[in-house]
Amino acid sequence: GAVVSQHPSWVICKSGTSVKIECRSLDFQATTMFWYRQFPKQSLMLMATSNEGSKATYEQGVEKDKFLINHASLTLSTLTVTSAHPEDSSFYICSAVGTGLNQPQHFGDGTRLSIL
Amino acid sequence: GENVEQHPSTLSVQEGDSAVIKCTYSDSASNYFPWYKQELGKRPQLIIDIRSNVGEKKDQRIAVTLNKTAKHFSLHITETQPEDSAVYFCAANGGGFQKLVFGTGTRLLVSP
């Protein structure tokens, strides 16, 4: 149980394009999903908290216009990196929390984004 | 806000030895402390967690201890195996029960 699917797993694109990453909770409903960024050999840095049906809450220093988050249903959140540039290249991971009390975060497999 | 420090950054042990990873946190409102294992290029996987109303929790070869007064918690792995080799992250929730702040990670290498 508690499976989180993230797609795509790997994407390479040209500078200036936009990239959408999907995060789905497959066997549970998630009112809250989180988006992280992870640089090589570093920790998970929280970018934003995504709540179903409401605007995402961004961490300090994260550009909301650059990283668009949509949480349209209890099983799907998307992160769109707009006008991506090489410095946006990174490993992006989502996590989802179930609707019950004191539920842990379950992570997706991550998306490796490379901007040329 | 919450700040989590984790030590050591790397840990090498021989198969069968024990491994201990320690974390400290700053926000006394934190009440949930999970540990995640991440293998190279893969997702972090929850291996054990503890809440502030208990001091210790054990699951087979893995145990976590919590000292609320000192604001630190530790992961203990006994009888280590090569497949335990991975990066381990501790985290604390800063009282926000869902949002987590992660430590910097510990790279554990278990040599056969």
Task: Walk me through the structure.
- The complex is a heterodimer of chains A (116) and B (112).
- With 116 residues, chain A is mostly beta strands.
- Chain A has no helices and eleven strands.
- Chain A has strands at residues 4-7, 10-13, 19-25, 30-38, 44-51, 57-58, 67-73, 76-81, 90-98, 105-107, 111-115.
- In chain A, strands 2, 4, 5, 6, 9, 10 and 11 form a seven-stranded mixed sheet that branches. A four-stranded antiparallel sheet of chain A has the order 1-3-8-7, with no helix packed on it.
- Chain A is globular, with a radius of gyration of 13 Å.
- By secondary structure, chain B is mainly beta.
- Chain B has strands at 4-7, 10-14, 19-25, 32-38, 44-51, 56-59, 62-67, 72-77, 86-92, 101-102, 106-111.
- In chain B, the strands form two sheets. In chain B, strands 2, 4, 5, 9, 10 and 11 form a six-stranded mixed sheet that branches. A five-stranded antiparallel sheet of chain B has the order 1-3-8-7-6, with no helix packed on it.
- The interface between A and B is medium-sized, with 21 and 22 residues.
Question: What are the SSEs and their pairings?
Answer:
The complex is a heterodimer of chains A (116) and B (112).
Chain A: E1 4-7, E2 10-13, E3 19-25, E4 30-38, E5 44-51, E6 57-58, E7 67-73, E8 76-81, E9 90-98, E10 105-107, E11 111-115
Parallel strand pairs in A: 2-11
Antiparallel strand pairs in A: 1-3, 3-8, 4-5, 4-9, 5-6, 7-8, 9-10, 9-11
Chain B: E1 4-7, E2 10-14, E3 19-25, E4 32-38, E5 44-51, E6 56-59, E7 62-67, E8 72-77, E9 86-92, E10 101-102, E11 106-111
Parallel strand pairs in B: 2-11
Antiparallel strand pairs in B: 1-3, 3-8, 4-5, 4-9, 6-7, 7-8, 9-10, 9-11
Can you tag this structure with a few keywords?
heterodimer, A: 116 residues, mainly beta, seven-stranded mixed beta sheet, globular, B: 112 residues, 11 strands
